[in-house]
Amino acid sequence: MFKKIPGSYVLLFYIIVVLGIASYIIPAGTYDREIDTKTGISYVVPESYKPVKSTPVSVFDIFKSIPEGMMESSDIIIFVLIIGGCFGVIQATGTTNALIGSLVRKSSGNEKTIIITIMTLFSISGALFGTAEEALPFYPLIIYFSLSMGYDKMTGVAMVLLGTGTGFAAGFLNPFTTGIAQNVSELPLYSGIILRVITNIVFLGTSIIFVIRHVNKLKREEKIHASGNRALDNFQTLELKHYKVIFVLAISFILMIVCIVKFNFYILEISTVFLIMSIASGLAGGLNPGRLSSEFVKGASAMTFGALIIGVAKAVLVIMVYGSIVDSIIYALAKVIEGFSPIASAVGMAVFHAILNVFISSGSGQAAASMPIMKTLADMSGITRQTAVLAF
C-alpha cells in the first residue's frame, strides 16, 4: 500500500530540517551580485562563486527560520489575506451565483453554449482571483445542473474543475501564482500578461473540447436523458445590486491594469485596490458595514492556509541563508544544466514544477519556496526570469 504523502506544512518542515542538517555537510559559498541600474533587479555574476566560512545552523535556528520567513513574506501574506477577504465579500453578494444562473438561462436549450459559458466564467475567476478550492460550493450546484440537463456527474465536475484550473494555471492576473512568483523574481507585477492571456485561451479551448467530446460520447452511447432544468431554481436571478457589483469589479480591474502599466503599481498599491474593491462591492451588493466586515474576515480566514504556507515556504530560503548554502546549491544545479540549451533548461524547469506540484500543492507556497533558486538558474542558463515564471 502507498503511504499518504505528508501535508504541505509537514513536508516543508521536513525540507527545512534536512537543509539545516545539510548546512553541516554542504560547503558554504557565495556569488557576487550586481544590480541593473535601469531595472533595479539583482543578478548573479557568472563565474564569481567562491567558498566562504561555514555557518552551520542550530536547532533553534531551524525553528527561528519559520517566523522570520513569515516576517520577510509579510507583504505577500497580507496581500493574500486581503484578496481572500475581497473574494468572500463578492461571494456574499450572490453576484457570482446569479451571473452563472442568468447566463445559463439565456443559453437554455443549447447545451454546448452552456458548457462554454460556465467553463469560461470559472476560468476567468481562476485567472483573476486564483479561484481553486474556493469553487467547492459551486460543485453541487453545477453537478445538479448537469444531471438536470441529462448529463452525468463527471460533466458537472469537469466544468468547474477544468474551468478554474485553466484560469489558475495561465494566471494572467492570478495573485497567488504569477503575482508572488514575479515578486520573488523581481519582475514588474503581471508583466507578460498578453502571452498568459493567449495560454489561457489555449488551455480553456482544449478543455472545452474535451468536455464537449465527453458529452457527445454520452449521446452516442444514449446515456443522456432529458430531466428538465430544475437546477436553475438553485441559482439566484440577476438583480440591480448584482449589476452594480459587476460594474464595480469591471471598473476596478480596468483601473488596476492601467495603474500597473502606467504608474507601476505593486503589491502594496494592488492590495489597496482590492481592499477598496471589496468595500465598494459589498456596499453595491447591499451588505451593511457589519455584514461586509464579517464576510471579509470570513473570506480572509479561508485563505489562512495559503497565506501562512507562504511564510513557511520562505523559511526554506531563510535556513539556506543561515547556513550560507543557497549559492552552493545554485552552483551545483548550474553545473548540472551547464551545456544544456535554453529551451531544454526551460522545459526542465516545467518538468521540475510538475513533479513539485505533487508534494507542494499550494501555488503560493511553491512560488515562495522554489522561485528564489529558479530565477538565478534562469539567469545562469540563458533564459529570462519571465520564462522561469511561465514554467512555474
Please, could you describe this protein's structure?
The protein has 392 residues and is mainly α. 71% of the residues lie in helices and 3% in strands. It is built from 17 helices and four strands. Strands 1-4 form a two-stranded antiparallel ribbon. Strand 2 and strand 3 (42-44) form a beta hairpin. Helix 13 crosses helix 16, helix 14 (326-337) packs across helix 16 and helix 15 (342-359) runs antiparallel to helix 16. The longest helix is centred in the middle third of the chain and has 28 residues, at 193-220. It is globular and about 70 Å long. The model has no long low-confidence stretch (mean pLDDT 89).
User: Radius of gyration, Cα only, in angstroms?
Assistant: 23 Å
- Number of helical elements: 17
Strand content: under 5%
- Compute the number of strand runs: 4
Report helical residue fraction: over 70%
Q: Pick out the low-confidence regions.
A: none
The secondary-structure class comes to mainly alpha
Strand order in the largest sheet: 1-4
| Shape, per Cα inertia axes | globular
Topology pattern, helix = H, strand = E = HEEEEHHHHHHHHHHHHHHHH
Query: Which oligomeric form is depicted?
Result: single chain
Instruction: Report, as a whole number of angstroms, the end-to-end distance.
Output: 31 Å
Mean pLDDT: 89
In this structure, how is the largest beta sheet organized? 2 strands, antiparallel
